[in-house]
Amino acid sequence: MSDKENESPEIAIEDLPGVGPKTAEKLKESGFKDLMAIATAPVKEFAEIAEIGDATAIKIINAARDHLKMSFSTGLEVMEKFKSMQYITTGSKELDNLLGGKGVETQSLTEVFGKFGSGKSQLAFQLAVNAQLPIKDGGLNGHALIIDTENTFRPKRIIELAEARGLDAQKVLSKIHVARAFSTDHQTLLTEKIPEFIEEKKVPIKVIIVDSLMSLFRSEFIGRGTLADRQQKLNKHLHMLQRMADRFNAAVFLTNQVISRPDVFFGDPTAAAGGNVLAHASTYRVYLRKSRGDKRIARLIDSPCLPDGECIFRVTGNGVED
Q1: What is the pTM of this model?
Q2: DSSP H helical ranges for the chain
Q3: Which domains, from first to last, does the chain contain?
């Protein structure tokens, strides 16, 4: 059952107790345009935006929740919700199978991490193109939104990927919406603006890509003394991305850098940046590494429902392939 089906159709934001015309207008301008957005908002953030006290914010949020089905559900009801999940093919059947058989899942955070040249951005570009394919071909007839933190987005590469699949390259580019982030505050702000962007443009965003997630966090927060602040800010950012995934039934795809672990004497000494906050927030975590030639090795290291495993795929001029 979707969020819209859960909502009481006769209830508007103005009908909630404590919400007057001016407050309603302010909330809508800030992206709180439906009951679900209000019901899932953090109290402090909501109170600050609405310029109201915490007690009033809690009252409004609870009223919104009362009009939605946000209490305990049976396993059968949860299973119905899972039926609304959709999938975007990666372009490689082997990689799709590693992720459960159909590709990257909506309503989830999928993180890929690896060294430079392991194929993280290439996979992100491929998903931005594949999201536009018809459902029968593994797409979702949707648009892609990219938050670019490392200036890696290249229209020329998108054109190559589109033409390799017989798509109109100009049309494909017109359905990819890119924003360059210059700081962690800017990165967070761009995420906050996603509902407003979707409302304004009236476009079905089906994949939200952050390439890469930790780059700006690592450059701004240096030293152990800043670690707590960094992780708190990162945690808020990740929860916001998860809310976007749930609210718009979109896939969130995160590329991530790696750090070296000098205390590891046996095996691979690399680990994903972001620590436990990111490890717990990601629904699926995939470690990418380069092999010989154009081959890449993907290893699924964390999933709530899939076993660990590995697969081999290729990154060629035509994109991600088996």
Answers
A1: 0.83
A2: 3-6, 21-29, 35-39, 43-50, 54-66, 75-82, 93-98, 120-130, 155-164, 169-174, 184-192, 194-201, 215-220, 227-248, 275-281
A3: 3-66 (1.10.150.20), 85-321 (3.40.50.300)
